[in-house]
Amino acid sequence: MNPVFLIIVLALIWAAISGNFSGLNLLLGALIGGVAIWLLRDAWAGPRSTRKIRRVLSLAALFLYELMASAVRVAIVVMRPDLKSALRPAIIAVPIALKSDAEVTLLANLITLTPGTLTVDVSADRSVLYVHVLDMGDREAVISDIANGFEKKVREVFE
Amino acid sequence: MLTGLELYLGGVVLVLGAAFTLLAAIGVVRLPDLYTRMHAASKAGAVGGGLILVAVAVVSQDAAVATRAIIGVAFLLLTTPVSAHLLARASYLSRYKPGSQTLIDELASKNGQNPATE
């Protein structure tokens, strides 16, 4: 994407958010946009395609759905009178096959906001995530849920 | 008639958000240890706060306010899991053990090799 075009768009967004379309404010927005683009210059070296945008949207849709399901589930657990018997907490090691810090960070964040799972730690070589599970049924099911759901989508977005 | 619609919609979303926030708070009180409490605080808390901001965006009818509210939701969803993860990790590294009901703790066996404990 052309950086000049991007700077103009960012300046307009800046003016819209700050609610002030004066020349000075647009200039400030362009300046901040320029600095942001300069700081992130390596981040969009790769090819951008509509397919990638569709994958990002697909990941976002899955995430929003899982987030709502997750909040409802936690709310139901919290309201149960027999709270102690509803909980089967566990910390399990989930092997992951992601390479970069950005991918691991995104996956860890997504896991934390989805039903019954919370990322506690990541191993030094980034091969294992330690996940706290609120209601542990089957260990293998939890691991394959993460591998076939979010991990696959995260890899598609970053590939 | 139509002018009232966004008020009703915003009101419903606002009450939903408040309900989730209340349930998150109840969860923090009722759940047995920090790790299970973070589940309530991070998930129900983020959804509750996010819904309240969405309600602000719906009711305000102002592009500038709505944009900022939606950006607020995005930041909330980005930062809440990070703080939940940091609290859980920090308490684990300071040897706060998971509650007695915890079935498996695979992190315990690995902890000796964790460079962060140095």
Automatic annotation (TrEMBL), chain A:
Pfam families: MNHE (PF01899). It comes from the Bacteria. It is a multi-pass membrane protein. The chain crosses the membrane at residues 56-79. One of its GO terms (molecular function) is monoatomic cation transmembrane transporter activity. Keywords: Cell membrane, Membrane, Transmembrane, Transmembrane helix. It is found in: Cell membrane. Belongs to the CPA3 antiporters (TC 2.A.63) subunit E family. This is Na+/H+ antiporter subunit E. It comes from Devosia sediminis.
From TrEMBL, chain B:
The keyword Transmembrane helix applies. Keywords: Membrane, Transmembrane, Transmembrane helix. It comes from the Bacteria. The keyword Transmembrane applies. InterPro entries: PhaG_MnhG_YufB. The lineage of its organism: Bacteria, Pseudomonadati, Pseudomonadota, Alphaproteobacteria, Hyphomicrobiales. This is Na+/H+ antiporter subunit G. The chain crosses the membrane at residues 6-29, 65-88. Pfam families: PhaG_MnhG_YufB. GO terms for molecular function: sodium:proton antiporter activity.
